[in-house]
């Protein structure tokens, strides 16, 4: 019997979408107002879901407190109230699009949970825009 548990979290962060190897004009044409040299911010919503077999001893797939601690350590502390481009090492050479942020978060959490669990990350950039990443298939 496989069951999915989920934990919601949020963080606030600034970023700028641009490529260092493109001119300002090309960046502006592709990324528009998200290419603002002074950055812009979002109140990101995050849902992390873990799917696995229920442990017959505990009745848990994974203790939600353990998942909450992983999210806090791997996402909330390093990302909250940060400039993703400048303050988060994973984005020094990676454009911090919602897609790339979701993949980075997935990789950070994946390293902290057992490999027999499936992992899904849903990142809400706005109330209407969100990205889902489940890993490589």
UniProtKB/TrEMBL annotation:
InterPro entries linked to this entry: 6-PTP_synth/QueD, 6-PTP_synth/QueD_sf
Top-level taxon of the source organism: Bacteria
One GO MF term attached to the UniProt entry: 6-carboxytetrahydropterin synthase activity
This enzyme's EC code(s): 4.-.-.-
Root EC class: lyase
Keywords: Lyase, Metal-binding, Queuosine biosynthesis, Zinc
Family that this chain belongs to: Belongs to the PTPS family. QueD subfamily.
Protein name in UniProt: 6-carboxy-5,6,7,8-tetrahydropterin synthase
């Amino acid at each position: 019997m496989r069951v999915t548990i989920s934990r919601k979290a949020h963080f606030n962060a600034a970023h700028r979408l641009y490529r260092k190897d493109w001119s300002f004009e090309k960046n502006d044409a592709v990324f528009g107002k998200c290419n603002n040299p002074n950055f812009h911010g979002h109140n990101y919503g995050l849902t992390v879901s873990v799917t696995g077999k229920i442990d017959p001893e505990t009745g848990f797939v994974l203790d939600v407190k353990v998942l909450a601690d992983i999210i806090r350590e791997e996402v909330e502390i390093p990302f909250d109230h940060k400039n993703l481009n400048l303050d988060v090492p994973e984005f020094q050479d990676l454009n911090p699009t919602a897609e790339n942020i979701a993949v980075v978060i997935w990789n950070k959490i994946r390293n902290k949970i057992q490999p027999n669990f499936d992992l899904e990350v849903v990142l809400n950039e706005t109330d209407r825009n969100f990205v889902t990443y489940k890993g490589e298939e």
